[in-house]
Amino acid sequence: MKRFIYIVLTLMMAGCEVIPYEERYQPVVNGNSERCHVLIEFTGFRCVNCPEASELAQTLQETYEGKLVVVSMHPASNPFTQGKYDYTCPAADSIYRLMGGDASTPFPAGNVDMKPFEGEWFANSSQWPTMVYEAMNETDQPKTDGLKTCYWVVEDSVLGVQAMPDGSVNDHYYHRHVLRSACDRWEDVQVPDGSQYEHLRLIKLTIDPTNNYIVNAYESAFYDAGLGD
Amino acid sequence: MNRRIVIGLFSFFFALSSIQANDTVFVSGGVQHDGLLDWTPVMYHSNSYADIDLHWQTERGTFRELRAKTRLEMNQWPMPGYEADFAGHGIGHLSVAAAFTWGEITVGDVYGQFGSGLILNLYEDRALGIDGALRGAKIAVEPYKGIRLTALGGKQRRYWDCYKDQAWGWNYTQNAAMGADMEIAIEQWSERMREKDISLSFGGSYVSKYEAEDTIIGFYVDHWHAPGMYRYRVPRWVGAGDVRTQLRVKGFSVLAEYAVKANDPSAENEYNYRLGHAALLSAGYSQKGLSVLVQAKYSDNMSFRSERQRVGLAGRLNHLPAFAYQHTYALAALYPYATQYGDEELAFQGEIRYTAPRKSAFGGKYGTTIQLCASHVRRPFMNEQAESYTDVHVELNKRLSKQWWLNAMLMYQAYNQHVVEGHGGMIRSGIAILDARYQVNNDIGMRAELQYLYSPHHEGQWCFALYELTLFHHWTLSGQWMYNIGFAPDATNAHYYTAGLTFNYGAHRANIGYTKTREGFNCSGGICRYIPQMKGVCVNYSFTF
Description:
heterodimer, A: 229 residues, alpha+beta, four-stranded antiparallel beta sheet, three-stranded mixed beta sheet, globular, B: 545 residues, mainly beta, 24-stranded antiparallel barrel, two-stranded antiparallel sheet, 3 helices, 5% helix
């Protein structure tokens, strides 16, 4: 019996590691990925924690300038997007449901390159920097054969309504990089109805058709791509 | 794999060959199947379980009993609302327990609770799809009279993937949890205390979890750190301790418990290093016909999970007691409160129950029971957003005659949708419920419910009606209807209805019906699972032996 008590006491003493304050945060380099990655931000105008997550996504994009594209998706299947105001598009909902999203998925949720992270398709915003960092530092060589192309049209600075963290409603909130449409062919790319042409951007994606993972992305303004009027 | 099967079969037949004539051997278990045939698109969702427990009771030296438990789970296409990784099938539970006069040893999947569960509560809840068992071992011994020691350890189950490539769950290099608990019952040492019906106990527990270090990156800025990307150094070992005492003097009892958790940055607490705290105080009094219960709880940053990167319902090591009533009436359960583990929470609960005796002025011919309950959950600061949940209800239960029973309830509820669901605002509602039962004769009985919810917020007003007809003890026909009357900003004016036939015979229970239910939350003990709107033919069957 004494031996049993000693073993338990020893394990208890060993079983706690306190990290001193000065050792908790270690600066990291930003990564050296040669490809451009896509951070998909699933959001909704009724989600009070989404504006903070959107700020985080913006900071990540600035940190990895030229190597990270952020796209906001408002999927109709989630109650955070349902109500008087509509920022949804069918493509956002298709992608959301393809990943297994439904009405119970908590928002804000994020995904990088349409790949699962830690076995989950949707990560909460505190995991986004880790997801992006790991994508920027991945060592696996991407597939180069048999890839398909896809085009996403996003609209920046959509003036609208958003529930805020303090419980208020902001009637003059700018929704950033909102997905408006998606298509597989260049000739099908169009200016979405009701969108501001000068705010539109086109993202050309290279996708692995075997698992729908995004391999690379290229973003440009609509007028630079030679589209529209 | 083959070697394990051979060893298992050899052990089983060796155990069988050891059975003697005066030993008792029996098998118990059960089968449970819940299914829904949905036709948009056509799909049959089901959760099925089969439990088989083998018991061998004997008296050989100090050895008393051997129990082998197994559970088969077939949830390949689960009911709506479950996470994608819940889907799967296989042996969900396997354990062997040996009981001796001095204690008990269990090997395999083990459950346990230390104190009120503030730092460790491993349990299975099928309705929620939670199985928090540790794959490892547990030992419980009583070395001296009145002292009970329990120690356990293992790798926690999280659906099906947790044991993949992990040596069937016996590989502890990635993560594991262990703990020990001691409970001292003072009254066992004092005959005078036992004579006076006084009991006093002290308890203490310690739980530690191990998880290999992984990459966690975040933006961080404070007085010492410039804004930028930082890698968080996370503790591989996280410890949590708990102390408690309980005093009971005749009908009066009081429990005080305090738990603290060391630095545990996780996805649920947004990677903060603060200590976690929880305190619980509970006092109760009961005598014939009267019981009073008053409780208070404070918790902050007490999310304690076996894997720091996980969120969701599964994978918790602890359980904070719910301070919100778990209602069974449909409209009373429309806005249930889910305990917030990561946030600071202050909760109070009180309950008075009085049963007026028969043939008294208030009790009438058959007696009357009246119950007043209140619970209030808030965040410990003062502003209009601080209130998380309030429930005040009074319930009257009375038998009117030989054939009539009546239960009536009035309730006020405040539900902060923003706190629980992350959107919306405060929903305040008033609810009235009338539940009547009439026994026509020995073979025929019926029950009816009428419910009404008034709220100017969210979806507004609701009404609900239910009728049940029981025939010849075995058959029950039932129908229910719920309607959103509206008069609120998000009113839907939707109808939801369910009709079914249930057959009970001995330990068998079978049910078939049509259902269309509203989206909502299925809650148990403050843990809630979101269930989307469902419609289709539902089939349920259960059997125990």
